[in-house]
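Input for the complex:
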Amino acid sequence: MKISSICRHRIVTVDRESTAAAAAALMREHHVGALIVTASDGEGERVVGVVTDRDLVLELLALGLDGKAVRVGTLASHPLATVAEDDDLSAAVLAMRDAAVRRLLVVDGERRLSGIVSFDDLLVAQAADMAGFAAVVRSGIERESAQVSTAPASPATAPRVPAMGTAGWGQVLA
Amino acid sequence: MADRLNAADLCTRNVTVVVQSMAVDEAARLMREHHVGSVVVVNETEQGRVVLGMLTDRDIVTGIVARNVDPATVHVEDAMSAELVSAREDESIVDVLSAMRRKGVRRVPVVDGQGVLVGLLALDDMLEVIADELRLVAQAIEGGREREARTRP
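Predicted:
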């Protein structure tokens, strides 16, 4: 399963010059736990970091800073861990493990931001796969206990076996 | 497996607690110091720490920072999640998970019959157990293949 089908494409951004309090209001309004922090340069908006609800608590309140005075850019975490949208689930899991983060930015082939993927998103996708495994086990038992031949007829084009030895197949001597 | 394990088997006993009258900024400092995302709000009684609620980092952001409220002037009891979702220590993991799903929470305090804190149970704790068990199943399957290769070469 490709990350592009797992990740969230709806991204909430905040300019790095905004206040921490404004960022918190955005998190509340959009029901998200993380915002993409951006900065404008001559060619448009660039991603400069990510700020999470947890960052706001730990870096702001715990240090006794005023949310209306602190710029969100100073709280954003760097560097950014990314995953390509064509990568699969296991690549994203490894990237999270290596960076010790629970969120990754998803980028397209030209390194443009296309989404964000969280640990929870990956877990839900993986659990759906596991449910598929369980369904295979159950359907096998059901097919046997039905005691009738429900085996599918040969598919329209049955797979061909390659000529012996051509595909690294072991030669079996009768 | 999960229906035989209970909340007390999997919960963390090392829990960061705060009393209801503590200021929110002090609770935030505890979260930073103890590297936790939530604290259990308790009332210290002779029987022990009776659980009143939970305060998460998210509660602080949405309830305090987003509303421009001074965290030094708010008590944790006024910022904590309104509804207490807890698990009895003898409750099965399946029942706890079902309650967590209904209530939309990812951590619950585990309490005894008197409501006294026993521990904290988070989805992460359960995930670790399940992932370890899955790995053991995979290893058992591989072991079976190896045994056949060894005994019937």
